[in-house]
């Protein structure tokens, strides 16, 4: 059973964090990274063949036996923060795992959700602008293919109510909140702090090469991308899959444009600024990076 569960939030660097932690010789991540075992049945990420209702004994399948001593088993399903099943079941697991939540400045997190689900996936129509997406999410006029992370993007970026629920169930000792901005600014210090909290040697990250994972991209040819999405989940995972994916990414994707601070984005930032003070005071955070303009 995992000792650590990275339970939030989506598009806040959890894929990179997972890979960096998985590289530690004393840690072992799940396969896949997002087991989704405790996702709610109405979630787009729910797996009918692998979920809590089938019995907790199935959860072990995500953690393969290792031929080396492992002190930290972990998984990362960042949508758990919004899952009622996860909230109900994870805190009462017998081995009492710790839960980590990585937060990102809300407007930037929402914008990343928009780019990710309109490019890497197709839950958000490609022709829908960011402004139109925000309006649809606020008014509830689009289902986004059943994707609750897109449909409730605005509510989900108000982190305080969700974190309060988890604190009530976990207590302060089993819960840690970090910032995506700290991860980006100084990944070595970030990972050293996490390693210490998890009881593994932080010195591993003194000379570690930090490479980003699962970054959003833009699609060059939409028809080819639709074909890619239709077949990629049917292919067996392994070296061949990774090779084909790398070739596809090289020829049909390009890095997503850096977010611009246009009027739509600035208004969105202002919308969430009122949530900063209570979040800081209740959880001992320093959100000064969120207040920076630019």
UniProtKB/TrEMBL annotation:
What is the protein name given in its UniProt record?
Sulfotransferase domain-containing protein
What keywords are annotated for this sequence in UniProt?
Answer: Glycoprotein, Transferase
Q: Which PANTHER family match?
A: BIFUNCTIONAL HEPARAN SULFATE N-DEACETYLASE_N-SULFOTRANSFERASE (PTHR10605:SF56), HEPARAN SULFATE SULFOTRANSFERASE (PTHR10605)
Pfam families from the entry? Sulfotransfer_1
Tell me which InterPro entries the record gives: NST/OST (IPR037359), P-loop_NTPase (IPR027417), Sulfotransferase_dom (IPR000863)
Q: Where is the Sulfotransferase domain?
A: 2-201
């Amino acid at each position: 059973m995992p000792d650590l569960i990275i339970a939030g939030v989506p598009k806040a660097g959890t894929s990179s964090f997972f890979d960096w932690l998985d590289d530690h010789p004393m840690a072992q991540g799940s396969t896949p990274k997002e087991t989704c075992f405790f996702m709610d049945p109405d979630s787009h990420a729910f797996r009918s063949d692998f979920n809590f209702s089938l019995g907790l004994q199935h959860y072990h399948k995500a953690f393969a036996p290792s031929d080396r001593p492992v002190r930290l088993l972990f998984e990362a399903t960042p949508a758990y923060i919004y899952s009622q099943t996860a909230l109900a079941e994870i805190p009462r697991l017998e081995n009492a795992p710790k839960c980590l939540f990585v937060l990102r400045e809300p407007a930037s997190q929402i914008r990343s959700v928009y780019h990710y689900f309109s490019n890497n996936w197709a839950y958000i129509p490609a022709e829908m602008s960011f402004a139109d997406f925000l309006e649809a999410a606020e008014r509830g006029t689009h289902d986004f293919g059943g994707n609750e992370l897109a449909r409730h993007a605005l509510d989900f970026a108000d982190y305080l109510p969700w974190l309060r629920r988890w604190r009530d169930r976990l207590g302060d000792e089993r819960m840690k909140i970090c910032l995506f901005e700290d991860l980006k600014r100084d990944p070595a210090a970030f990972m050293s702090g996490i390693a210490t909290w998890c009881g593994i040697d932080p010195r591993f990250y003194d000379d570690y090469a930090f490479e980003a994972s699962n970054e959003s991209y833009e699609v060059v040819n939409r028809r080819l991308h639709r074909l890619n999405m239709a077949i990629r989940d049917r292919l067996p995972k392994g070296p061949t899959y990774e090779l084909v994916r790398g070739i596809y990414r090289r020829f049909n994707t390009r890095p997503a444009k850096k977010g611009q601070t246009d009027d739509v984005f600035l208004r969105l930032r202002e919308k969430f600024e009122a949530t900063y003070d209570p979040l800081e005071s209740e959880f001992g955070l320093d959100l000064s990076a969120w207040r920076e303009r630019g």
